[in-house]
Amino acid sequence: MNSFEDLIETAQNFIGLLLAGDFTSTASKFDDQMKIALNEAKLQETWINTIKEAGTLIQLNAPKTAEVESYRIVTIPCSFQRSIIEVQITFNKEGQISGLNFIPTNMEYHAPDYVEKSAFHEIDTTIGEGKWALPGTLTVPDGSGPFPGLVLVHGSGPNDRDETIGPNKIFKDIAWGLASKGIAVLRYDKRTFVHAKQLTPDLVDQMTAKEEVIDDALLAIDLMCKTEGIDPKRVFYLGHSLGATLAPRIAQQDNGLAGIIIMAGITRSIEETILDQFTYLYNLDGNMTEQQKAELDDLKEKVDKLKDPEFIENISRQDLPLAMPVDYWKDLHNHDTVAIVKTLSMPILVLQGGRDYQVLESEDFKGWKDALNHRENATLKVFPELNHLFIAGEGKSSPQEYMVEGHVEKEVINSLVEWIK
């Protein structure tokens, strides 16, 4: 009988194949009975349905083992962006897989101390209409308005309205925290989250930041301005991560905004940011593997190619970092965030976590600072102990930290309230 050490390695490799979408190889690990009970097509359908709303994988957690009669069971909890899925694999004495279970665990939200639930109520709403309509939540203070309003816009990837990452819901923290202090907040599920099935390969290839973020953000701002009980002259925009990077571009298209808030927005190019992030992560434990070195070299080569204006005209997705669509890269290159922010006259608040490894104080925050230093109506603030999610921690930040329950720091909430009011 195989040792548990060997079975754990087999289980981890099996999950890797599932994540890569290689269902032929995964199904080949089954014993004869499992091949009948869960054929390749059924395995693919079950796995896709299990993870479709889970979001991005953050990490594989420590395995658990058990022995029942002649079978050995390895369970590996997989931490995804919005849930933990336990992959439970049963091995027979020959080391073949004779049982497989996917057990999702939704993570319960606990409100932070600064929230006063009795001070506000929530209303379901819809942003836009037709094919790309998005469900949203309007969090409204109790009492008589009109209230100042804030629209929240997410980072990259298929985010839900709470911008859920592990057990953390940073947009829910902000919405409930600000509504407790008399500010109405609108948040909504992102197009790539709600309408993933409608996004055909052709549509994905043509997608830019406009379709992914900007169009829906402008509709959300318009809805907020037209909502009864909201002061249309005091509607603000808050973007986090990609939403922060695009804030100047969105403000340029909606002159009615009272101001914009940039929380962890980059001022470097996205390809430089991706390269820096992978370099940081691969060096976290000080021991880069040969595979990681090769992946980093490949990424560097792709980033260098993007700097060649002729190359980008004749490029395929496979030649680009993270295989992102060509039109997406071109669109970002054609809109200089720093140049745009210099043209805006509205009040601007820039917030940065000092421990953020994704958006750097030394590079990106400095970029905002250099662009806005002369402006009396620009406020820039660094929170030394906070990470990319504006949650406090110690030491070097890592993706694993995002799986620890925390909340947007009270000092950040207070800064937002003070600036908006």
UniProtKB/TrEMBL annotation:
Q: Where is the Serine aminopeptidase S33 domain?
A: 171-390
InterPro entries xref list: AB_hydrolase_Est10, AB_hydrolase_fold, DUF3887, Hydrolase_4
The segment(s) forming the DUF3887 domain are 11-100
For this UniProt entry, the molecular function terms from Gene Ontology, in alphabetical order, are:
carboxylic ester hydrolase activity
A Pfam family annotated for this UniProt entry: DUF3887
Name used for this protein in its record: Serine aminopeptidase S33 domain-containing protein
Organism for this UniProt entry? Methanobacterium bryantii
